[in-house]
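tool_log.txt
---
The assistant was asked to compare two proteins side by side. It first ran the structure predictor on the initial sequence, then on the second. Raw inputs and outputs are pasted verbatim so the downstream comparison step can read them without reformatting.
(1)
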Amino acid sequence: MSIDESLINRLSDPDATARTEADIQSDIKLLLTTGEFDVDSPRLEEQVGDGSRRRIDIAAGATVIEVKKKLTNLDADSGYIDQLSGYVRTRMQQEQTRYNGILTDGRTWWLFETSPSADHFDLRSSFELVSDKRSQALVEWLQAVLATRSNLKPTQHNIETLLGAASPAYDQDSAYLSSLYEQVRHNPMVKLKRQLWARLLRSALGTGFVDDDKLFIDHTLLVVEASAIGHAVMGLNIIDLLNNPQGLLDGYRFRQAGIYNVIEPGFFDWILMSDEGERFLAHTVRRIAMFDWIEIEHDALKILYESVINADVRKGMGEYYTPDWLAEGVTRKTISAPLSQRILDPACGSGTFLFQAIRLITSEAEAAGWDSSTIVEHVQAHVFGLDIHPVSVMLGRVTYLLALGKHLEDRGDLWVPVHLGDSMQWYQPDDHDENIVRIDTEGPDLTTAEHTTLFSLARTLVFPLTSIDDTDTFDQLVSAMTNRAKEYTDKSRSRPKIEPILKRFGITTTHESASTLIDTFNLLCDLNAEGKDSIWGFYVRNQVRPLWLSMPNRRADVLIGNPPWVAYRYMTSDLQKKYKAFAKKYWLWEGGNVAPQQDLVALFTARAVDKYLNDEGVFGFVTPYSVLSRRAYDGFRKGKWGAHLRAHFTELWDLHELKPNDFFPVPAATVFGRRSVKPMADSPEPPHGFPKTKRVYSGKFAKYSWSLLEQQALITEETNVSIGRDTVASSPYNESVVNGATIFPKVLTFIREVEQSNSKLGQRAGMTSFESLPSVHKPWKTIPPLAAALPNEFIFEVHQGSTVLPFRSLKPSRAVLPILNQTLLTEEEIDSGDDQFRRWWKMANSLWEQYKTSQSKLSFRDNLNMHNKLNRQLTPTKHRVFYTTSGNTLAAVRNSNPTQLVEQKLLWIPSGGINEARYLTAVLNAPITTKLVSIYQSDGLMGPRDFTKYVWMLPIPRFSADLKEHQELVAMAEKSETIASKIDFGSYGFQKCRSLVREELDSEGILSKLDNLVDVLLSRSGPDGGVV
């Protein structure tokens, strides 16, 4: 229904002549009745009903709207706000529910709500109707606040508008939950739930996980919303839950219907420990009830998650959801016998791969004439999911049900086999007994079973799995033990007896597991007496799933999914130690300067194949594109994962040339393979390692389905070139290349000269007044520019990546550095030297210590000279070559000023003279060099970027003045320098300047000549750079 434009114009202009509050009130009523709000009749001038004569201007749903002729600001209009607060509080008392308060003059809209913990009346959101062009935005803002719509289709736009982080509903609910959390955060059980939640995510995501209140609140909100959606997609009338909001989180209705392990109390039912918790749940139900979830698309839950957790947070946590079309392609490639194979996604996330696998199975089963009951029974026994992320698991379980669709209408009991668990099994020692599960009750993450803290010494729950063949039995045992432990609340009294419960499960006092279980029960009792027990049953039951699925008779025939992408440098220190130990066990550890680039994705894949895949079973995993070629994955590509485990990779998909390439934050690939073992040391090696070729998918495509992509994309078979530990540089110049110094951060080093004031005092000769340049990266960007005046001998010209063009350099930057007479000063020499510099250095050094990362152990001076990269530049040859470390095209220039320095965005090469320097710049600036080196480069979303020392993988020979082609390259470089020097750049940026140089060289025919000469040069060079 369209809204009259004149109505919006009137509302957006409260200053219009003769406009009264009654006029605005009437227009808002018209807006609510003609807009898409599903409000039958907004109530005007409704009596408050508290015995007074007060009247509410407009009442709609659970919202009070107070209208004023003109709003100014919160302070000036505090009286209006107090008036609205009184109305809202009265309504809350009368109806025992959450209530919104809106204060508006038609143009300005302020949303208020009473905070449950502090009893404040707080502003939650605001909207400004600045013109009629914002009419739809106002409607959507009000729709989210009023929550009166019905039968909305859960599209991405609707979900983001009404529930997402940009909606007023999110602002309200997040603030309300935060207030509830403040009420109960010190409760021992709530603290434990928060700690266990953090341990899971820290184990999965390393330092990318930030344990802050906001993320915990966001996850709580998502689980509550997903729980409501889970009820709705099953056709349950979620409005009925208003009579029992607690049932929203305990899954009672599902268990009544014979569906288990979908919704259960876990980390996030802490809400119910607050007096206002049920009120929050009821309001959430109303929001979710706006949508018609019966016809939901399976990716709607993924949309909900991504609309609440912003992209920066997801990236920091290593969360990269796989698009449906890619999951479909991987699933169809990997699953060859849908009606017989057991399938596991060990990092299932929100269930994208599970959905595709189930739909493939049900399609085949329907074609084979299976009935729904048989299909459901088969699927739950053959398709499994594991994930360590509690919110993802909740979404994955609902997705599992969505995939079964109509077949749920006729079935037996269903246990949804999507489990919260540590697929890596970090906490189990390498030589652990597979019939034992150990759960540390105090550790920071899951990497160790025993972790000493200030308050306890290795308090570890141990559960034997001996004689327990199925998870249902184990669940019953753990539940019975934890329920009995809840009876123990006073440590001064004796613990209850556990022997009768054990006997019920056939475990007598002489049973091999009895003593272990009794010890664990005693610990559960002690934890309960400390207020820390009730979560452990849930936690342990889920943690045992990976062990159960890794038992020989429970392993899968197919592994699929998208393993977690977490770089080694972002892992916690504990996780790094465990990662290194595990990686060495599987012969994946590379170490050295590539250690920071190693990623959990490789170890996770090897570990999953080892633990969960049958011999000759197959796997298909989405990975970063770098897995196909980077040195950090050399051991992974070899497929010899330890003494016995082998992986024979059968096919590689290179996806980095697909357009648009925005489905992951970095380019992606997919690897397929088969597991085998080498049983004895003297046994013949089974096939293993990467194939020599890969399938490259390129071109534009519509992101709808894999079958459509295969029709639209260009698919070619190409050689897969990779860099391994045995790969050596072909050029002898590789040994001469030096990295620029780490002149960082900018605000403490780089400067711009400033003019002196008109003071007659002037400035001492040999001094420079300056202001430091601001940094652009956190936390340094928070430091304002620093001003000082220093002797000129401490100020140096520094070339950066932005000052180097092909065959020409721009004016170098200037930086303050602790160098005097071509010597890097020690701290003692600085302290006893020039007073002005000493004071500057003390200030800069203090800021460095204050803002540097917690991982950095270097002083400011040592960081500047990291790996001696600054000191090496103080006695250079007269002629050097500078070239860029990254970019779309190599740029190199000859430099003949030995006093100028080079920072980390450049590399430099000393040369024996001007001719050798020109020879090198000619080779490096030839377009063919950029093209040839690209096969060795890492690839980002902007294409190959890093040159570093990869260029010397090419067989570039050492310069020889006796060779004609070398002399020709020198002559071409000299000519290019002359051409570049005559170009007027005006005020262009360095990227444009580079383009202008290349365009001019191209128009003069220089670039094509360089390509021809370099092509001949490389074709005549041997593998070590010698001439053949």
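(2)
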Amino acid sequence: MDNLKELLKPKTFNTVSHAAVVVWILIGVIFLGIFADAEHSESRYDFRCGGAKGENINLVRGRCFELYEKQYNKHDFPIYAFVIMNFFFIGTVCAIYSQIASRTVDQLSPSARNDDLEGQLRDQGNALSSKKLFIAYCCQLFARIVLGVLFMVLQQLLYPLDFPPNFPCYLTSGGSQPRNSTGVWHECHNQRATKKNSWMRAVLVVNGIFLFGILLETVYILLRAWKEDSFMKNSKFLKAHLNPFHADSQNATTSTLSRPEPPQQEKRTEQETNTPQEQHQEEESEENETNIPHLPSKPQQLRKPPLQEFIENTKKIIKEETNQPPQLRSPFSSTPGEGRPAKHLTLDQIYTNLVVVPDIANYDFTGDRRQKLEVYTRSGGENTTPRGPEDILNHENKNVLIVGRPGIGKTLCCTKLLRDWAFNKVFHESSDDKIHFDAAFFIKFRAFNAATDLSLRELLTSSEHSPSDHIDDEVWNYILENPQRVLLIFDGIDEFKHKSKIGEENFEPQFKNRADKKMPLYALYEKLATGKLLNGAAVLTTTRPTALSCIERVNFDKVFEILGFSSEQVEEYVTKFAEEEKHAGETIWRHIGGNANILSLCYIPASCFIICSSLFQMAKFYGSKSLSLPTKLTDIYKKAVKIFYLRHNEEFRGKNFTREDFESDNLPPNVEKKFEKLEKMAFEGIKEGRLVFGGNEVRGLEGSALFHRLPDRETTPLKREQQFCFIHLTMQEFFAARHLANMDETELRNFVSTNIADGKWQLVFQFLAGLMNEKENLPNEIITDLLPVETEEEESKWYNEEWTEDMEPRKVTCWPTEDKKHLAVTLFKCINESSEMEEIVQRKLQQINFNFVNFNDCQLTPVDCASVVTVIKNVQQISHLDLADNNFGPLGCFEICKLLKCSKSQLSWLNLTGNQLTDEGAKYLADAINNNCQLHTLDLWENNISHIGAQHLAEAINNNNCQLRTLDLTRNNISHIGAQHLAEAINNNNCQLHRLNLTRNNISDIGAQHLAEAINNNNCQLRTLYLTENNISHIGAQYLAEAINNNNCQLRTLDLSANNISDI
């Protein structure tokens, strides 16, 4: 048995395969004994023939037996010899393979590797990645398959399918059997034929079973090798297929020996220093942790194996160093000990999934300005679902390129991926994940701009978050042997000084594909990205679009572009930003969500962070519970442009800036000079209606953080032109305004007066108004002189604050006129950027004789509403304000309510029809009209107000401060519940409501009953009630009829048209 073990060494076979080979040999020995015994014991005496006389029995038996043998064993090849050859040859193949493979297995064994590490390191580039063991194993499988098929075929050819027990024997006197001769027939019987048949079938079945098993194993390992190239490498094949159970038990033993219980005091101290969020993540990490394949250490040493220690240390450092990336440090750091500390964010606290689209997005800048603003977040078409890191990298796409403009979140996305890996949230070995990584390396290209040639080992050692300046030999071997367990993140090709050389190795190879060979980073990166080194490793690369041409020769499995945030994600980001101070967060969101320009700019995460930080500073200054921020759009953009440029432009990378650097409006002289070219280009682009610029126009500024590289444009079939655009339309408009601010007074006055009505210049002039504050040579009158002074008179009974059926039409003086109202809105937005302009315009408005402000159907946004309120809040003669059909939503309503709360306001009539105010807007209005508001008439047609909004309004008119006489809630979504709230309100003696319009709601009979009870009360002062189209039947009509018959009812008009009232 020992000799058999020496011939067929278990370590060279899979456990099941080794057992099968041993069983095969044992079965062969058994069959050999059976057939040898049958061959030697079978003679003519076991052959019985009838019809022979006593003295001729032996002669007849012998002659008939010879005839039997000639007929059924024509080749005269003994069966036992066939069995010997069958089992011996196949066994010999296994023995030869075992002897050949044992040397390789011994070299890969832990003892050999630990005894001669230096020798192994010399050969690791070739020996460790050799496929000799896999090839040898496959060869023996193929040989066994061929021999198995061969012997099954030979058995059919050499021997009959069935040895018959009965044999008719015809004998002549001479022993021959000519057809015309006479002789004697003998019926013979072979007593061993049945047993022989059974054993021959057994040989065939055994051959078939073993052949089928070998075929299954062959198909399995070939499929696995096809899917996973590293499976064919010696050490991987040994661990994964030949001896997995031994490897697992060895690892388990090593793991048990190397995991002593940590001291309780140390564990408690570590928990005390962690934040609750980090403790939760570490607990989650421990719950999900699985066994990592360890390289065994010496049994007597109770320490962690180097691989396990390396992985744990790497993850620990990643958790510590990625908790608060430098990109999330506030630009407004305070002096230590002075005031509140700055709001620095953690990655887990603020990270919001990005909109990522496959391939490079296309941009269509046709359409009006509002459509152009939407392009930045709609360019991905329907594939704009927010994605997490695990959606980008998977088992099908392991070599991935991420493209994105400056500040779009490429680095933070990769950092979040790395951090999630460290906490075992993604790419962790489990039944759900198809890929997982035991080692991850984060390499920033800009860190190697000054580096000389380096090896792969040196590159990984120099990566971000590396636990030490040396990679242990066993760890290094594991990386080389298991590249599919390795994640490499290369961040910022555009920041690499030698990026143009990437791809040269494909055409003129200068360096061998060896892990120990030193070479420049551009060559090393290319070999990793193309699989020439660490084939099977996952490689994730990021770049700005400006560097795409440098990596055209690298074939990526998938290319993604990060588009940034959608408006929903911006809101999510703001909520996370101010999670601990919700009042400040609500204020910031109102300011961002109410301004389409700022909201659109916030699609860039870096801009969103800068704007949120700036607004948060203002919220702290004015008080965290302040409902508004007196912030100028120009001030926000001046701050955002400066911080964004200094943080993301190439020339300032790695430079630390102080709070004073960001707070000052002054730019470095070299930056001012570059901005002059940007300003001219931005101005000419808007003037010509162009948002896209050619490569020649931006020459020298291609790498600017303020530009985005678009897909090239084909000018001819054989020529393409580079295309660029500003990172956002509002950025182009801001720089165009800077260009205008440098004009002389006469030129600027002519330009503004000529183009003030052109929509494409509106935001430019708004920025210009803010920038003019710093220009002593540019008087405010350049803009304020354009304010229209024309008025027009209108007359209608609807303009009366007190409503009666027989009232006379009310005459009002309207400003601005219908043809000037859009100009007035534009000027109001400009004037809002300058306090000096506000004062000038307010004086002008007081000199104009009007009492009605008409801005209906002007497409006002919430920020426009803020501008209107800011300018007219101190103009006391205004009694009527028409803002119908602007669709500015609850945020716009919030701004309008500031006017109602203003002590100087004399507003008594307000039309807010068709503005989608919703219940939130109704709540703001209810709060305003409770605050000694002078409002008598409020029109809220078509505002999607439900019973919740009706309840808010009911509580307001129930207050003795409310002077409302007319409330129009036509075409809303008010049910009988809302009607009940309103009924309870008009029952109260504080309610002064005379006219209530609930046309086209859905109050039904129940709501009609509540209203009938209300008007039946002597406290109710209601004179007119409209209930048209409210699904009221004869039941509801009956309630109302009984109510108006009561002496307490003061109702004069009741409209029930278009209901379901029958003759009953």
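---
observation on (2): Residues 813 and 931 are 27 Å apart (CA to CA). The longest strand covers residues 707-716.
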